[in-house]
Write a structure and sequence with these properties.
This protein is an alpha+beta fold. The chain has 3 helices and 7 strands, in the order ααβαββββββ. The termini are far apart. 3% of the residues are buried. The model has no long low-confidence stretch (mean pLDDT 89).
Length: 121
């Protein structure tokens, strides 16, 4: 998923999610999809870093996973504590079926200029 997101490949990104995906941070799936399309396509670049990965609960068919995700683009930067539910589909592929942003911390935005990074603050 991270590679699809960083490569700004919307179709590949959505393939990591079940068709009946539910985001608790949006009113409905369509609102979530439109938000994702904008956030994937708009920036000139996306950088992601995952850390503090922890399996909270696991069975043979699903797992609840929590991790910190740092997102950076030319427009926005944050660090989010995410909790996701991963389930196996009928072909045994793992897909995200639920997602919850537990905490969001806005970070300073840095701009790339001729391969040099500088803060906009």
């Amino acid at each position: 998923m991270l590679i699809s997101w960083q490569n700004q490949d919307v179709d590949a990104y959505f393939n990591h999610y079940q068709n009946n995906f539910r985001s608790y941070n949006f009113l409905n799936t369509n609102a979530w999809e439109q938000d994702r399309i904008t956030k994937i396509n708009r920036p000139s670049y996306i950088e992601l870093r995952m850390s503090d990965f922890e399996v909270l609960q696991e069975t043979t068919t699903e797992a609840i996973i929590q991790f910190s995700l740092e997102y950076r683009s030319a427009y926005y930067a944050d660090r989010t504590l995410k909790e996701i539910l991963i389930t196996r589909d009928s072909r045994e592929n793992l897909q995200i079926s639920n997602e919850l942003n537990r905490q969001i911390e806005t970070l300073p935005i840095y701009r790339r200029m001729n391969n040099v990074v500088s803060s906009i603050f």
